[in-house]
Amino acid sequence: MGVWQSFFLLALLVGASAFVPPRPTALSGGRLFRQNAGRLVSSPLESKPTDLEEELQQEIDLKNTKLSKAEELKEIKDAEGSDQSIEELLRVRPFVPFLLEKAVENFDDLFVKKRQKASVDELRDLHSRLHGLKDKHLVSVKTLGEAKAGDGKRIGLTSNEQIRSAQMKGETVTGKKRIVLLGSGWGSHSFLSYIDATKYDVTVVSPRNFFLFTPMLAGAALGTVEFGSITEPIRNVNPRVDYLEATCLGVDPETQTATFESVVCEGTSCVIEEFVLSYDMLVVAVGAQTATYGIPGVAEHCYFFKQVEHAAAVRKAIGNCFEKANLPGLSEEQRRNLLTFVIVGAGPTGVELTGELRDFVEKEGPRYYPHLLKYVDIKVVEATDKVLPPFEASLQRRALAELTERRSPLADMGLLESERPCLTSVLLQSGVKRVTDSTVTLSDGSELPYGVIVWAAGNGPLPLVADMIEGVDRQKELKEKGVSRGRIVTDPWLRVQGVKNLFAFGDCAVMETAPLPQTAQVASQQGAFLARLLNKNFDLDASVPKRIGPKVFLSEKLPFGVDSRDLAKPFQFLNLGILAYLGGGSALAQIQVDQRQLRQEGAAGWVLWRGVYFTKQVSLRNRLLVALDWLKTSLFGRDITRF
Ligand SMILES: Cc1cc2nc3c(=O)[nH]c(=O)nc-3n(C[C@H](O)[C@H](O)[C@H](O)COP(=O)(O)OP(=O)(O)OC[C@H]3O[C@@H](n4cnc5c(N)ncnc54)[C@H](O)[C@@H]3O)c2cc1C
């Protein structure tokens, strides 16, 4: 074919493509998003549209505005060539069949676990192969030089630069698709527990080489349990998976590469390396960071409460305050200020920390600091008019009474001032305006002196997440519409909207169709959902994931299995309820069974709370250690050692 014929054919094809309805690319919130949706694509040679084109464009625009939801759904159905109703697929499944689906999935998980079982020798082989693979997928690595810990500078960009060929992207050694998973928290732990690592090459990258059981962080901060008992090495979760200790700095969806930074510190000196990895699928489960809402002094003076190191710092700071207050030569006022503990935020984290702190003071105080207890004051500061917003009103009232009215046993022992028999108080509708190194100013202008202030008042996006939102047009659009609120927006199959081969879940993401709270429960159910979806043979590029291979699992073969039909069902959250410890052997439990809510409080709530946290530990090792810690604490008291 000559050059002119080719050119003519190309022009015809480009022209024709303007009239071919574009293939749907994503379904979200019942809306269809198309590439070039409704825009007339003109020939690249013609810069100005003709009258005919303008007329056609108007017609298309009109058609688009008229397109009803039902028509959109029908279009997807036609495009998918399936009889299955999309509406039915997206509808919330009734409780009993949904539970049945979940039960069947457990058999699938056993099957995947069995398939992944390997002897020590096999695992050794696998890891040496994965090590080779790691280098294969490495696009570039740079040693950025050495820096002093804490100086916040990167120096020496070229000291040991080793750039590999970018053509290595996408090459595989094993022929399997490569999944790069970001994060080692709740979502990632669950994803790793269920993903079939015989089907994919999986690499986890996270700055933290362990999983943290966050619901017991408050207990760990006050020595009820030890830090090591509520953490689990991420490498233990799935021995077939490779782990790299690094932080993701950015993602380039076009080249399907991600840039990472590894910081290894010894003493006060750190070596910083930057490397780029390619991926076939990137799974983002990086969580969120503490939001300070730009309030002056919060970042500088408040203790945050998300990570183990935060809890360790809080433990140390509380101990410091008691030891400082114990020194001779201090005035009454100085002692009182040092032993005033302010907790900002009356959500579950703030309330549980308050309960644990009160337990610590009541149980260990009479032994170690009886003469100081009359100065202790624990204040919860909350901007709204409620405590524990996720709980039902009667349980909120119970929590408030527990924190404001409960007479401390220390009062009966004569260790508190008679006019203040309750160790804790709650200041509602009190926003924080400013924090200095010794005082916090509230919205009514009052100033509270404090010894330790802990900030447990909300989540905000990590810089990586904020950059990803800004870097993708569709995400930016959803942000402007107020959908994302600092989270990456996904469709109901957890695919990031506007980008291919990218998935996100947990605290860093939100489904446009059904926004869910930022909890461990949601993150871990989503991690399991995505892993199970990837284990099956679905085309994830289709607007609704469609079966393209044989049915392998029971959940596909049995008629009541989640994926027994040709289109994958979307994620549906199973709300198991919420728990909160209030201190003094009292807890709240709000358990959801379909539309019914079971509520327990006081000692019965506490038994439930302990039972659930014990069984929810992610390994037998954690379960044993936590049980031993509880026993040790009840026999010998909390550990107040500080390093
Ligand atoms: C003190 C406390 C108590 C809580 N109690 C409860 C509770 O009782 N019940 C409940 O349901 N929820 C609770 N939560 C909330 C729950 O912990 C979160 O919702 C959950 O951790 C979210 O899981 P995730 O996987 O999205 O993120 P996370 O568990 O936060 O994990 C994020 C991971 O990503 C890593 N990471 C961060 N940045 C990067 C990066 N740039 N590159 C690579 N990796 C990165 C982090 O190191 C971490 O490993 C609590 C939270 C806290 C802080």
TrEMBL record:
Residues 576-639 form the External alternative NADH-ubiquinone oxidoreductase-like C-terminal domain. InterPro entries: FAD/NAD-bd_sf, FAD/NAD-binding_dom, NDH-2, NDH2-like_C. Residues 178-406, 426-527 form the FAD/NAD(P)-binding domain. The keyword Signal applies. Gene3D superfamilies: 3.50.50.100. One of its GO terms (cellular component) is mitochondrion. Residues 1-18 form the signal peptide. Keywords: FAD, Flavoprotein, NAD, Oxidoreductase, Signal. One of its GO terms (molecular function) is NADH dehydrogenase activity. Belongs to the NADH dehydrogenase family. This is FAD/NAD(P)-binding domain-containing protein. It comes from Chromera velia CCMP2878.
